[in-house]
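Explain this one:

_____
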Amino acid sequence: MNNLAVILYVCLGAALGQAGLFIDLPSLPQLATAFGVDAAATQTTVTAYALGYGASQLVWGPLSDRRGRKPIALAGLGVFIAASLLLAVVPGFGPFLVLRVVQGVGAGCGTSVSRAALRDVLSNRELARAMSFASISFALALGLAPFVGGLIARATSWRVDFLLLAALGLTTATYLARALPESLSAERAAVGSNQSVAAIGRSYLRLAVDARFLLPALIATLATGMIALYDAASPFIFETRFGFNAAGFGSLSLGLTVAYISGALMVVRFVVARGQPWLLRFGLGTILLGGLLMVGLGLGGWFDTLSLFLPMLVITVGASVLVPIGLAMPMQAFPAQAGQASALTGFLQQEGSGLLVLIATVLPATSQLPLALTLLALALVLGLLVRTYTRHTRLSPA
């Protein structure tokens, strides 16, 4: 088994899925004008994508347990490519919203199946390290996708965003067809093929009520959701209130990429030497520091680019430590159910993020305190989850 090819697939799946979520963020104000809708309506397109992205993983994961990772991965990419092409030409906002759901469905396959494939070939701390590489790909998409989207918005129509996504999907499919080995063993495929729909449902339910799965999955969900919430709220703050153009906002997103990569590299560097519990505490402390800083600046009357962006850099570093650990631990605890554990984790991560994005539609942009207080509240909930998980499992650095 070529582990490098599987790791690269995980990176491609993470990057493509997040590029689909973030590339049109700088163009949301232009999209509102084109379709004649308000800002809140365009922000629901992010939620629509997250809905398809998360919910579909509950199907893609078990399918890959039955049919193999590679054929299901290629099927999901086909859905993503077709939806992206249609989004480039769709005339109305209603069909656009539906197609964003379908596009998310295709993207969800890349995330859930690639993580399951990774669990097929790696275990424990090796898995956490590999997930940190996926987080770096996530970070690159987090910064580069809005940056490229901003350049596209300045030079041409926002519809070119989706043509680019289709081209990226086709490139990924070509690589997978030629280079991806099948990581699912015949024995495990036989077990998966014998599971009924009812059995799969019961298996999901058992995972969902097991603290070894649920607590780390929720940690990854909230850490991802804090970034998604900021990303949904920030285009209108920076472009409408602070006077940034789409390209300028996209360039600002590159700073978040640097912060996210810094945290992900910490996981690569310290997961063996320090262990996952230490990294959980470090990531949580960093997020709390960023949240308190943003609230403190807001209480002091600050509301400008630096008062929002600098604390978010700190929050992003912490989140980028928590996310790969939170995604790896459920699959570590349930190696025989890697596809389903990956799928349910992805479902919670994306649907939770989508729900948090809805909060952005009601936050007033007259002060940074509403956003800052929301992020700090989420950080406090994260603190409760981390403490409960470490006490429940009695993890040690070894």
Observations:
- The two ends are 28 Å apart (CA to CA).
- The domain at 3-393 is CATH 1.20.1250.20 (Growth Hormone; Chain: A;).
- The mean pLDDT is 85.
- The chain has one domain: 3-393.
